[in-house]
Structures are given as structure tokens and as C-alpha cells.
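Input record (one chain):
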Amino acid sequence: MARRRWERTGEWRTVFAPEAPRQALLSILAGLARQSVPEGSETVKRSRLRHVFRIRLVDGSDVFVKHYLHRAARPFGWLGAPSRSLEELSNLERLAAVGVAAVEPLACAERHRRGRLEDAVLMTRALPRARPLAEALTQLPEPDRIAPLGALARSLRRLHDAGFWHRDLHAGNVLVGGEPGDGGLAQPVLVDVQKLRSLRFPLPGALRVRDLAMLGAELGTALPLLEAYLAPDFPQDDAGRLRRRVARAAARRARSRLRSRGRRCVQVSTGFRIERHGRFRVYRRADIEASALLAVLPDSREARVSRAARPR
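The corresponding structure, as predicted from the sequence alone:
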């Protein structure tokens, strides 16, 4: 999509990749213009500002759709500024130009009303059997983790040397396809690159540390990733300094992440619930039903009564 050609399709201003399934994607856009989500779609994330869902097309391929609601984010308009979808599309094109593996963009669309940006959409091709790299690594023995971590480290080194700062490099934003038993994992790819910024010169050490420490803290260790990142030609003095800085920053992030998760476990949010069920106050993740938690409570009470009744 290096040469961008916009076209008008109904209410949308759109641009398509050369091999994109245009008619299927246009059908999705027509539904979104009517505030209608396609039947059979699977919601991945949803808030008042963004709806991300996955949909299977008639040809059997899966597509991720990010629908940004700019009218909710900026009710007074966003005149002259690019949409978040267009920003991410541009970043994906830049990554492809420097050889960094990322998701494949299929289409970008914007809808304006009276000169104001209303909403925008980015569609990308889903990676077959994709899952977060951190999850995939837990299914591999220690020696087999070297290859995917090395591939990711080389991509990040190329990214940083080209002057790009990801800014949101957590474990959920690195996906990998394939299975350990069918020839190994595929090349890790970057997703959610809307926040990526280009400095137009090799990234300075402080910003390299931020990206590497964020990812290392969530993977549990930054060491294997960092060693592959530094090999084979990183200046020796700078390599030692970077190792120390990343280790300290990753430890700080891990502690901060633990405190943040602890606070979120007692606050109502999009991912957490606090409810009253009879005489019980239930704290649960939104994807875990309260009935599943309540079902084990009678067994716990009976066990305590049984232990208390045992002869001393």
C-alpha cells in the first residue's frame, strides 16, 4: 500500500490493498455506517472510543476490524488531523518498508460529516492460529524459546536502528502463529502500532530501554531477548550499559504492573466486576461467571465443618 489511492464508496473515503477482498470489506463498511456490526463477528475489545472485532469472510479468511469513534473522542471535531486508522496504516507501511514483520493492512476508511471526522476503520488480515507470544512461549521447553525470541529481537533491533519507537510494546502486541508440533512457531509480528513514532535517526538508548523493558517485564525476563538484540555488532561498552538499564527498568515495571493489577482487582472497570450475591460479595473478572465462583462455596463450608468435627 505504498502508493495510496483514496476513493469514495458511499459515506466512506477508502483505500484498499491491491489484493484485498473489496466487496466483502465494503459490506462491512456499509453496516458500520448504519451502526450495525456484521452478524457472526466476535468482539475482541470494546469501549466508547473503539470497537475491535474479528469476522470470517465467505472465502474462509479472518479479518480484524478496528472501528474508531472519533465523534466520541473529540466531539468538537478533528479538523486537518489524520484519523487513528490512517496513522496506524501509515505506520504499518513504514514497518514493511524497513523489513519489520507486522500485520498486513487490507483497508482504511474515514467518514466525515460537515467537515468533521466522525469515525474511521482499519481492517487487517488475521494471522492464522495467532496468539500472544508470551502465551506461546509457555507451551515450549526452554531451549525451543530461543528461536522465536531471537526472531523478535532482530525485528526490534531493525525497528530501533531505523528510528522507530513503538511506545506500546507489551506482550499482547506481539503475536505469533503456528504450533510447536507442526514445524515450530511462525515469525512474531507486531500489532497495534498506532502509537509508533518515527524519529528519522537511530533510536537513542533511553527509548530503546523503554521498549525493551516494557516487553521484558511482561515476558518475565528481558535477558534472552536482550542478548539476541545486542548480538552480534552492538558496541561493547554500550551493550553493558544497556543490559543494566533494561534490567533495572524491567524490574521497576514488573513491580508497578503488580501494584496496578492489585488495585484493579478491587475496582469496577470494563474487565472487573464487584457484585452482591446473597450474603457474599463477589470480586470477579468480567469473563468469569459469578455462578462458577458461588458453586464451590458450599463445598468449602462443608470441608471446614468436616475438619472442625474431627476428633482431636
